[in-house]
Amino acid sequence: MTSTTVPAGTRRRTEARSAFPDRVRGALQDTATITWRDMVRTARQPEMLTFAVIMGVFFLLLFNYVFGGAIGAGTGVDYIQFVVPGVLVITALQGAQQTGTGLATDLSQGVTNRFRSLPMNQGAVIAGRTVADAARNLVGLVLVAIVGVLMGFRFASAAGAIAAIVLTVAVGFAFSWLSAAIAAKVRNPEMVGMLSMFWLFPLMLASSAFAPPESMPGWLQGFATHQPISVASNSVRALADGTAAGGEVLYALAWIVGMLVVLVPLSARLYRRSS
Amino acid sequence: MVMLSTQDRFPAFTPPRAVIEAVGLRKSYGDTIAVRDLGFTVGAGKILGLLGPNGAGKTTTVNMLTTLLPMDGGTARVAGFDVATEPRAVRRMIGLAGQSAAVDELLTARENLRLFGRLYRIPGPELHQRADALIEQFRMTDFADRPVKTYSGGQRRRLDVVAALVASPPALFLDEPTAGLDPRSRVELWEAIEDLAAAGAAIVLTTQYLEEADRLADDIVMIDEGAVVAAGTPNELKRQLERDVLEIHVETAADLDRALSLVAAIAGVTSNAATNEIHIPIGNGTASSLDILRRIDDAAVSITDFQLRRPTLDDVFLTLTGPTAEPASGGPR
């Protein structure tokens, strides 16, 4: 395509192929553009954020005041210190679930076709959304953490608080890509919402988020100890309490990196294929 | 379209060649053939009307040409780039609007234009100017800073089309851009589309409305069930298909059946069982229409009314795209 003549009226450049750094810069720029779009949408339609915060506060109240006495007495732990980090991780998980419903809603409407017809990096449609959802999660998590503090929860240090929140956002980010992969495959928003129950509830309840797994039956303990939500809850707890040993946090980071390595290319491929 | 070999030696010279070229396009979904052997060219400043009923393959064709859907066969080039092998380059050269592409409901018109412009990689300051200019040019100032979900149908469709123009692409694909619009909004959008062609864009316009194709298109390709049934300029088509139509109203359904059996040999006969009406195209003027009436009358069919009339474009359309019968123009779907 060296001698292609572009008709009058176009101002676009026609270089045959942009160099690698240009493509990376373009992909980042497109991701930033889509992030902006999705953040504006969140600001105009804050129901998702409100819902996530209300769910988080609801879990705090429910578990602390309804089950907290029983669980705390049974295990001898200070339950509010135990449950707030777990609720933070679950709040991030709920936020990640909304990535999928949002993407599926886009996919079922014409705006995705417009994106596909543009000379943009197509992966940016998902990447921008996961970044915007991570930002939304950050806001929600800070609000839930504040309610936790009002209920008597204490961070050992400011640095610990920041580290705990950042790790929680990162966990949510990784699960956003899981949610996006499902949405790219299924495309129907209702179906995506329904399917999310299948990963959300087992990960949420068979975990150390609300109760120590030691009280669970043996066959469940292995899963409940090593699945990402438990690992994340334990790490966030340790960071918040200031008792973090490197190993726990590394385990959580390994889960996050592992999920991203598998899910980022997978969801990008599923998105490109679903037309 | 003429291809000038001088373009290689004089790269600054832009020869009059097709901006959009499609040859032998094919697409099937399982056993269903959506598009078969479809081909056309569109030059700069020209509008091609792709005309056909629902499910004829119009949107499938647009989606293939805009890289949204892989082709099963055939080749297509847009602004010199191969749609199958250079989709990225093609996407820089096209704007898509209408049924297939929407805008963001929660953003305003101005924000939508900036969003899509940024994704076309237009630099910031230039993009803001461009968005403002488009808003003014297409008289969207009154509502440009309100979220799209508050728009009327006409306002939204206008934004749909304008969103395809942000990067001033040389090729535009407008997929039923006026579907569902009130007459006034439709005429306004027609004027906008004419302006775009006058500014040099090559436009593929799909529509179900003959009136629209007649008014806007330089060339018309009529398709049905994925295949071309007629092609040419609006005038050529009308001349080629111009036939008088004999409209006969009969008394009963039995009369209708009997009359239909008498004229079964004539190509292009349509009927409407709801109104007991038969439309018969007449090849050689009134002599044979008298013949037909006499034959039907002799068979003791009770004729309540008849008239001979010049065809409307709807007749042409129905003759070419309909199976054999119903509904007559204006009848129920």
How are the SSEs placed, and which strands pair?
The complex is a heterodimer of chains A (275) and B (333).
Chain A: H1 20-44, H2 47-75, H3 79-107, H4 111-116, H5 124-150, H6 158-186, H7 189-205, H8 218-226, H9 228-241, H10 246-273
Chain B: H1 6-9, E1 18-29, E2 32-43, E3 47-51, H2 58-65, E4 73-78, E5 81-82, H3 87-93, E6 94-98, H4 109-119, H5 124-137, H6 153-163, E7 171-175, H7 183-198, E8 202-207, H8 210-216, E9 219-224, E10 227-232, H9 234-241, E11 244-250, H10 253-262, E12 270-272, E13 277-282, H11 286-298, E14 303-309, H12 313-321
Parallel strand pairs in B: 3-8, 3-9, 6-7, 7-8
Antiparallel strand pairs in B: 1-2, 1-4, 4-5, 9-10, 11-13, 11-14, 12-13
Helix pairs in contact in B: 4-5
- Largest sheet, strands/sense/barrel of chain A: none
The average pLDDT value of chain B, as a whole number, equals 84
Counting H and I runs of at least 4 residues, what is the number of helices of chain B? 12
CATH-defined topology of the largest domain in chain B: Rossmann fold
Order of helices and strands of chain B: HEEEHEEHEHHHEHEHEEHEHEEHEH
Number of domains of chain A: 1
Strand content of chain B: 25-35%
Q: Helicity range of the residues of chain B?
A: 25-40%
User: How many beta strands in the DSSP annotation of chain A?
Assistant: 0
